[in-house]
Design a protein that fits this description.
Jelly Rolls; six-stranded antiparallel β-sheet; 1 helix; 12 strands; 44% strand; Ice-binding_C
Length: 236
């Protein structure tokens, strides 16, 4: 698993194909949903909304599963299967999932979201499409802390990629606050996270004969460069 870049869309991801799904989590309120699935137009898919009661500074486990055969995304928050949401995406033109971003946001809002309110999202395990067990990973995360000034927003959007197609991801998400509980105050999406899937181009292996020619060319070029370097040093 590799970190690609941070920002709206790093240069390396310009050719990535959107798989047309995103998991959205938010602090919500006492009467609205906290978890749902979206299509690539950020429209919540009807029937995928679920409610969740956030506890201050609690690390909540989650799991994302991608069924490449049916192009179906499934996301489970916590160990309660009633919080599981799934979405069959017939509009996805690709079925290989090997790139994604982790997005977190925290907006300071008077009497609703205090400065220092934080959301953290991390991936701790990954399972490839051909693997039978999960592998531990580190450094795959995103976090945002509400700024000290009211009406200011902190957003972190980190892109990651995998050398093989991904079947499942596991991790933790947590929200923490100092005084005001943003959920009780109805902060909704002012504090939240997203996970969005992509298919990234993979270099195609060249035929052996071509690779052989490339190897010879590389050796020749290397020798030429060495000679030029030697001549340059002698003439100094």
């Amino acid at each position: 698993m590799q970190f690609v870049g941070e920002g709206d869309k790093p240069t390396e991801t310009q050719e990535w194909t959107d798989l047309n799904w995103a998991v959205e989590g938010k602090v919500g309120s006492l009467s609205t949903w906290e978890l749902a699935l979206q299509n690539n137009k950020y429209q919540v898919q009807s029937g995928t909304e679920r409610q969740w009661n956030w506890v201050n500074n609690e690390q909540v486990p989650w799991q994302l599963d991608w069924d490449s055969s049916n192009r179906q995304i499934k996301f489970t928050l916590g160990s309660d299967l009633r919080k599981q949401v799934s979405f069959f995406n017939a509009n996805s033109v690709m079925n290989e999932f090997n790139g994604f971003y982790l997005w977190t946001r925290a907006t300071t809002t008077l009497n609703m979201v205090d400065p220092g309110t934080k959301i953290s999202l991390e991936v701790t395990e990954v399972k490839g499409i051909n693997d039978s067990i999960f592998t531990s990973v580190s450094g795959i995360s995103s976090s945002a802390t509400a700024p000290s000034t009211s009406n200011q927003t902190a957003i972190t959007k980190n892109f990651f990629s995998s050398n093989e197609s991904i079947a499942s991801l596991k991790g933790f998400v947590s929200m923490s606050w100092t005084s005001n509980n943003p959920q009780a105050k109805g902060a909704n999406s002012r504090v939240g996270f997203k996970i969005k899937g992509y298919n990234r181009p993979v270099a195609v292996s060249e035929p052996a004969s071509i690779l052989g020619l490339l190897a010879v060319g590389t050796i020749g070029a290397s020798s030429t460069l060495k000679c030029k370097k030697a001549n340059t040093e002698e003439n100094r």
